[in-house]
Structures are given as C-alpha cells and as structure tokens.
Specification:
CATH architecture: Alpha-Beta Complex
Structural class: alpha/beta
Radius of gyration: 18 Å
Strand content: 5-15%
Number of domains: 1
Helix content: 40-55%
Shape: globular
Strand order of the largest sheet: 1-4-3
CATH class: Alpha Beta
Distance between the termini: 30 Å
Number of strands: 5
Number of helices: 11
Amino acid sequence: MSDEHHAHHHHDHDHDHGSELSPMDLRVRALESILVEKGYVDPAAIDALVEMYETRVGPRNGAQVVARTWADADFRDWLRRDASAAIASMGFEGRQGEHMVAVENTPEEHNLVVCTLCSCYPWPVLGLPPTWYKSAPYRSRAVIDPRGVLAEFGVSLPETTRIRVWDSTAEMRYLVIPMRPEGTQGWSQEKLADLVTRDAMIGTGLARDPASLASGEDAA
C-alpha cells in the first residue's frame, strides 16, 4: 500500500498570505505595467526573458548539482549532511537559497515540493518559480492528493512507492534529487546534467530518458 507523508513546517513569511502575490511581486507588476504603457519595454520580450530564467538559466544550476551528486559519492555525502554548504561550494548561493535541504528519490520514496502558503522557492538552483507552482490549486492539491497531481504532470508511480510532500518555508527550501537513469554509467557530469529537468528537481517530474538526448526532445 502506498503511504503519503506531508512534512509541514511553520511559515514565517513577510508578506500577506491572503494575496496570490507578495508585495515585491505587486511592485514589479506595477513597474512593468508603467514601462509597457510608456512603450519602454515589449511585453513579449519580458515574457521570453522570464521563461528563459524559469526553465533554462536557473534550473541549469540545479541540474549541475544533481549531476555531481550522481557522479561524486563524496559530494553526495556532503549534500546529505549540509546541502547549503555543498551547493554554495559550486557558486550557487544567494537570496532565497540560504538554507537548503536535498531530498533524494528512491524506488521506495518519491519527494514532492510545495509551498502551501505562498511560493517559497530556491532561486539560486532553480531560477524563478513557474506560474503553476504559485497557483492555489497546486499549493492545496499537492498536499491533499499528491499522487493525483503527479499523474496530471505525467508521472505515474507504483502504488508501493511512498510520496513525501515537503512544505517550503522562508527558513527552508528543498531540492529534489531525482533517481539517476539506467544506462548512464561512465557519462560526464555535463552530459548527466542534460537529463535533469526543473520539474524533476521539484518532484513533479522525473529525470529524462537518456534516449531523449539523441532524439533532441525538450522538457521542462
């Protein structure tokens, strides 16, 4: 039988939990609106830039951390003991990433990350949070029905695999280490990093199939 767990932690945020957007988000939106209205920026260009940081630039940092974890046993042990220090040693540190915990997927347990009250997210390793991560439906359903949410992302797990939900807070953020795909023995860290997606590091996805690299498939 499956056994879903929810690791809930106290939130101490500095913004209004009743709003979908933090004060900083609201200020950014207001500034963006003014710049667009005056013709200083192109909305399409902003969307493209945000998309790049959501899915490519930021997550590439986390992918390098995961790839090194797969390839370097000593680094993996360090990451387990002190994820913040291990990640910082690779140059990925800063605001929203001061206190990190790495949680590893196994055949017996799958980890899923959510922020139930707002959108706490490890920017240094994952970039900007995707829109769905900040949405009320994801924040609530990830806790209530994690298996159903995973199915909607295309992740179907055996009933025997436990699902553990981690609730990010202002004090603690999580990085999921997906399972290393089979058939990647002897791969370089750079090549391994190409298998790691943003969604896999949140827990709403899995590492890419090695065969997908040859076919040129893309994934979030």
